[in-house]
Write a structure and sequence with these properties.
It comes from Vibrio ulleungensis. The protein has 288 residues and is of the alpha/beta class. It has helices at residues 3-12, 21-38, 47-61, 69-75, 80-87, 98-108, 129-140, 156-164, 173-181, 200-206, 239-252, and strands spanning 118-123, 147-153, 192-193, 197-198, 210-213, 225-230, 253-261, 274-276, 283-286. It has a 7-stranded mixed sheet with strand order 5-2-1-6-7-9-8, sandwiched between helices. It is globular and about 55 Å long.
């Protein structure tokens, strides 16, 4: 999926266009199968977002109706991961939203040196580009060695890719520019062999990352985190579920811990102890 396609999906995810009665019935049946038989609950995703996701899955399997996915799930359960992979949106890139990363490098990282160790949760890590982006900046600031990173996603396929240390696509100029705009100190190419695979020291650090299948909608959240990144994930949820997940993210943090949300998620109001840092792009701090 291209960036334009993803942005288009995001931009239209809040449209309130009603689905037809037939599509509502199909969606309800499919959601029931995914939830009751396989433990994947997508009921808290916005309906229009789900309709697009199911349409994408139907296209992948050459099906006409979303209900046609049900026999595949029930009679070919080994293909569950393929269906989940088709339903979930896995678009990511190195140093996506570089202004946010620059805020991290300039305003957040200097505040982390006082901790003897750092617990970090990357929620919705997708194929790993967010993990690699973070690891490189931590390494450049001599904080990677004391960092304990947990990376989670609902999709087990993308977790395997993330753990491999190999980019989904080779480095391009957009990646290099984003890295420099994010406060990178070196040459991004020096961190990847052949433009795709993490260099050996970073790959060794990647082996210490804990990868877990985790559903933000069903929890439970992680605990004792100094830093949480959950960027461009909440946009696919209903507004009520967004509020609950943000509360879970807050509760996962230690007092004075930091959380980062995506650019499309910064409009959300939260009445708890998680407050925006005005000098940053998308960063929040737990004040209670």
């Amino acid at each position: 999926m291209s960036e334009n396609e993803v942005n288009s999906a995001i931009a239209s995810s809040w449209l309130d266009e009603p689905l037809s009665e037939e599509k509502n019935i199909e969606m309800s049946l499919l959601l029931t199968v995914l939830d009751e038989h396989f433990g994947y609950s997508f009921r808290y995703y916005s309906k229009n977002s789900l309709a697009r996701s199911f349409a994408r899955a139907c296209s992948k399997f050459g099906l006409e109706h979303m209900s046609d996915l049900i026999p595949i799930l029930l009679h070919q359960p080994r293909r569950l991961d393929e269906v989940i992979d088709a339903i979930t949106v896995n678009y990511t890139q190195l140093y996506r939203e570089p202004k946010s990363w620059l805020s991290f490098a300039q305003s957040i990282l200097p505040r982390l040196y006082s901790y003897p160790s750092l617990n970090i949760w990357i929620a919705g890590c997708s194929t790993g580009e967010e993990i690699y982006s973070l690891m490189i900046l931590l390494d450049e600031h001599n904080l990677l060695g004391r960092s304990n990173i947990t990376a989670t996603d609902i999709n087990p396929w993308v977790l395997e890719t993330a753990a491999s240390g190999v980019l989904s696509q080779s480095l391009n100029q957009k990646d290099r520019d984003a890295y420099q705009q994010s406060g990178g100190k070196e040459n991004l190419d020096d961190y990847f062999v052949g433009g795709r695979e993490l260099i050996t020291p970073l790959k060794r650090s990647l082996e210490s990352v804990t990868f877990k299948v985790h559903d933000l909608c069903q929890g439970p959240p992680m605990e004792g985190m100094h830093l949480v990144l959950c960027r461009n994930v909440l946009i696919y949820f209903t507004r009520e579920k967004q509020k609950q997940v943000v509360m879970d993210l807050e509760n996962s943090l230690v007092p004075l811990g930091y959380c980062c949300l995506g650019q499309k998620e910064r409009f959300m109001q939260h009445q708890g102890g998680l407050k925006p840092l005005v000098e940053t792009q998308g960063w929040y701090k737990r004040f209670r």
